[in-house]
Each structure stands twice: as C-alpha cells, then as structure tokens.
Amino acid sequence: MPDRPVPVPVERLGFEMPPAHTDPADERAHRKERLAGALRLLGGYGYEDGVSGHVSARDPEFEDCYWVNPFGRAFAGLTAADLLLVDGDGRVLQGERRVNELAFAVHAAVHRERPEVVAVVRTQAPYGRALAALGELLAPISQEACVFYEDHALLNEFAGAEDASRIGRALGPYKALILRNRGLLTVGGSVDAAVWWFLAAERAAQVQLIARAAGKPVLIDHHSAIATRERFGSDLAAWVNYQPLRHNGDTPVASTS
Q: Which Pfam families does the entry mention (predicted)?
C-alpha cells in the first residue's frame, strides 16, 4: 500500500502569502505595484469604457489619501509611476495628470465609510451591468456565487456619481454592491482581494443570467450557502485565487517608479 500523501508546505505554493510591511514606504510601493498590475489585467479583460472605470488603493501612511488611475489613460499601459495620489476631496497631491473628480468621489465616499478597506474597484463589465439593470442580487446558484451570499448589497435606485455619499452608505459592511442600472462595486483588504471579488461577481452574474435564460435556477440552501461563504469568502481566499491571474494573466509593464 502506498504511503499516505503529505500536505504540500505553504512555501511550495508557488507564490507568497500577503506580506506584512513594517515600513510605510515599502507598503506604499507594494500597493502601487499591485494597483498598476490590476488595472492592466482589467484592461486586458476589456473592463473599461472610455474614461470610465477606476481602482483605488488607500495610502498606508497619509490619512484620507488614495492612489488611483489618471483620467483619460487606458488601463493597459499603466505603471506604478502613472498613478495619482488624491485626497478625499479629489485634489491631486502627486502625479502629472488629472483625476476624474466626479467618479473618484464614489471611491472617496466608500473609503470614508469603510476605514478598514484598502482597495475599491468600480469599473465596467457587461454581465454585472446586465444584472444591475434587472435590479437583482447575486443568487446562491453555484459554489462561486455563494461567496457573496448575504455579503453584498443592492442599491435599488439609480444613483449617479453625484450621489457618492449614498453609494458609500449603501455598501454597508459587505464586500460588494450592485448599483441598479450601473453595475458592480467591490472592496477588499488588499488590491488583490478587491479585484478578485470584482472578477468573481462578474462571473457569477454571467452564470446567473445564462441559467435564467435556460430555465429556473435551483438555489443552494441557506445553511450550505453560509458554510460555503465562510470557507471561500474571506479576503485571504480572494488573495490566493487572484495570484494565478496576476502571474499568468497579466504581462507586466516596466515601471520607472
């Protein structure tokens, strides 16, 4: 009889666990690198629309200051050196371009409501927008969708960027928000987690729409949905899931930062 397999050590997973920084400058550089890479990845998926779409990351040192992509630049070619440091009032503190002040106001409002959140993703993806047009939550019809079970909200009225405070409050304590007639917004304790939740919500919306078009989806029961969310719905699980995309799906662009 063969020997019983032994667990694979964490160090052999092929990527590092979320780092713990003691120097704010190191943490800032890490967040900026992850943010630029995430924007390139989202651009590769086509998840931007003209000048719409932003991902923001809280600065680890300066209160009410956030790193964000500049106005009018395609996601695909962005590097850490291109990012802007913007305060909560939308004023550019560092960087050579403008920020989309109206769109960024939503990010600032979410960051203010959720001081523990590091990153916010609010960009354009077709299935999330289609589900938002129906004014529906993500249903627990797959294991993947269960990570959002009772952990996302619906703002069931049309709210534009001028309603930033209302959007910030509507998210509540959850990881995702469906903005009716607009699309998806996700947050996380790291850039990696926030972006993974956006991708996961978009895919869950796609499956839900396909299933509804084919027939009547069968819901996963409450107890099982909760257990699945508890197992797979943490920011650490999101961070781990994102790593193959970061390494294999994104072609890094040389940064001068």
A: Aldolase_II (PF00596)
